[in-house]
Specification:
The chain has 79 residues and is mostly helical. Helices cover 58% and strands 0% of the residues.
């Protein structure tokens, strides 16, 4: 937590880091859009239980990811 605070980390990601490492080693292109639901500094903000914060963040993240992925796909297709 001290490292997160010192570096102002808002989110963590392990899965994409592993995938990116494999793609780099195999010289494969990688494009990724991720939605963050497990916010480091807000998991227990205001005493909110972690599972409630996760569900709230999941709903918000899914909506934003759906909106941004449609825009992103149009950009890729137009390129």
């Amino acid at each position: 937590m001290a490292l997160f605070a010192r570096t102002r980390t808002l989110a963590k990601d392990m899965e994409l880091a592993a995938l990116a490492s494999v793609c780099a080693a195999e010289r494969l292109p990688l494009v990724a859009l991720k939605g963050v639901t497990d916010l480091v500094d807000r998991a227990h903000a205001g005493g909110e239980p972690a599972h409630e914060a996760f569900v709230r963040n999941l709903e918000r993240t899914c909506a934003r990811l759906a909106e941004s992925s449609a825009k992103y796909m149009h950009q890729l297709l137009d390129a």
